[in-house]
Amino acid sequence: MTVTVLHVVEAFSTGIIQSIRTICRALEGDVRFHVLYGRRPETPADVESQYPAAVGFTPWGAAGRAIDPGKDRRAVAELKDAVARVKPDVVHAHSSKAGAYARLAYPGGAVPILYSPRGYSFLQLDKGPVIRAGFRGVEWALGRLPHITVGCGLGEYTLAGTVARRAVLIPNMIDPADFPEGGGASYNPGGPLRVAMAGGIRPQKNFPLFCAVASAFEGRDIQFLWLGGGEVPAGVRVPGNVEISGWIPRAKVLERMAGCHLYMQTSLWEGLPIALLEGMVLGLAVLACPAVGNTELVVEGLNGFLCADAATFIARVRELDADRTVLCAMGEASRNLALRNHSVGHIAPRWLSLYRHYDRYRKFG
User: Domain 3-173+344-364 classified CATH 3.40.50.2000?
Assistant: First the structure.
């Protein structure tokens, strides 16, 4: 039985691009896909060419991150036009804004709606408590409308249970075929320690903390690589041992990440971070802030450590630099955990089941 799915995504960038692409590739032949997407500055110019040829695309011109009643009304109208043209069996909305658009467009449940938050808006620690409470209230109100929320990790699924009437858990997945062979440098741990993180320079990813950790190692032969771009926050000094790659193709990101030993995730909130999963597949030990998403990928002492502040990050970097045997073992554990729990062969059938049997999941979960 072939079904048609319309992916709806306002924030078509970084990990969301990879998540949707992996779903499309894994279910090619079983599901017809179309993507309605909004562009951001970091959206690759060739993003459509990264997907299977059978996937259709429609730019979503009116969709935007900021609240703008006029543009938001036009965005909902464009969404309805796409639904009328594509005639999907399921609309799958990704991230908070697209999720709001989709549920508001069909408040009576005329079209089956899946909503993947990919990091709830009320987790944004750069916002004040009143704003975060408002975001939670909006999610709760929208959660009364007919749809299914899909948690991309256990933490997000647990949060979904507090604001949505129906939620299921399908963890983010990775395709081992995407990665350079042989894993990362943790399997050959000689030479200067190389520490990587991938993502945009924005409040969520906490670039100032990354720089604070790196500054403790200036003058030593330890290198820090930020794979992504964005504007450095005012007042943040970028140490000389930090390289910012800017926005580069994903294949290049994976190639450069594979040349590192350690993945450092300084983000303050997540859904279930794709970039961290990619570092794990490449055989990198992990140091991460204890945020939603990060905590379920780091098994303390096995593939890395959770670090609540700069001092703890710095101490763990020193410890792993001094003991490359432990570093190597943790990298191998990372790879094994990622492949066992998040490989496409394990997760993709769950998406196919959800797409094919939406009504059953809507009733029973």
Answer: yes
* Superfamily for the 176-342 domain: Glycogen Phosphorylase B; (3.40.50.2000)
At 151 the three-state DSSP class reads: strand
Distance, in Å, from the CA atom of 6 to the CA atom of 98, rounded to the nearest integer, reads: 12
pLDDT (tens digit per residue) in 71-118: 999 999 999 999 999 999 999 999 999 999 999 999 999 999 999 999
Predicted local distance difference test score (pLDDT) of residue 365: 72
Distances (CA, A) of 188 to 11, 255, 259, 264: 37, 15, 10, 19
Q: Compute CA distances 118 → 123, 170, 196, 244, 274, whole Å.
A: 11, 11, 22, 25, 10
pTM across the whole model: 0.91
Each residue's pLDDT tens digit, 271-328? 899 999 999 999 999 999 999 889 999 999 999 999 999 999 999 999 999 999 999 9
Phi and psi at residue 158, in whole multiples of 5°? -65, -45
CA distance readout (Å), 312 to 115, 228, 362: 36, 24, 44
Least confident piece of the model among 44-48, 57-61, 117-121, 132-136: 44-48
Domains 3-173+344-364 and 176-342 share a fold: yes
